Amino acid sequence: MKPDTHICGNKRTQDSVSRVPQGSQFLLLILIFPLLLCACSGGPSRNSAAQNVPDPVADARWQNARKAWLLDDVAVAQSAFSLFAEKYPTDQRSGEALLSAGICAQRRGRLEEAEGLFREAQTRGGAIAARALIQRGSISLDLQPSRAATCFKEAARMATNTETQSEALYKRGIALQRIGQFDSATAAFEECIAVNGSRGHSAQAQLRLQYDPWFSVQVGAFLQRSHAMKQLRRLQDGGFPAELRMPGRKGSPLHRVLSGRFTDRKKAQQHSTRIQSALGIDE
After folding, report:
1. CB 66 within 8 A of CB 43
2. Helix (H, G, I), strand (E, B) or coil at 260
3. Is the pTM of this model over 0.70?
4. Could you read off the pLDDT of 111-125 as tens digits, one per residue?
5. Class of the CATH domain delimited by 62-208
6. What is the CATH number of domain 215-279?
């Protein structure tokens, strides 16, 4: 008999629930649902508030680093920014700290240190990454212009504002000119002008578009045309090609004496060495 009683007891309970009016069940669900929402939303809000709590020690370290930067004490500033980035990697200022430390190292001539700091800053993405790529490109521009061009291209792609994009495009054009890719350089300068994020870089790009699509050796620049002609004849007498550029080109008031036209920068450098050796003329 106990099994029957147990079954009957469950059945009576189920029947009693089934007899609850449907409107009451709906009201019960409405009351429970907001409670669930409150329970789910309460945790993350508390966590966010905890993450946004100011850290006086971090703020003090940041201000000390900034002070050294403003005082142009690059050694102290580099150390302070590096320490800040190391101790507070999740702080939103850590990317800027890495970038600033890299610039300090670059100014001190410690290019390997600067490269490492810029690479780490680059991992932060966004505006910090774009600026880090521009700095890396600037380090490589003289000795590795091809690598610099790649850095500037990526910086232009990642830039979050037109000013940074303009700078990256302009510097990419310079790097491409140095490796003899004159058509690509022209395209970069034209894009810089079209973006128009920086008047200074746009104006410089306009001037760069007036450059010859080849390499020449400049062997003199003179205010007086008579002096330029004298240099020109000296080159010709020595068996070297020579040409005179009149004032006004690229906004210059000078008469420029040039020799040779080369598609390869190294060949132009070799030509310059021959001129110096034969005539004792500085480039």
Report:
1. no
2. strand
3. yes
4. 999 999 999 999 999
5. mainly alpha
6. 3.30.70
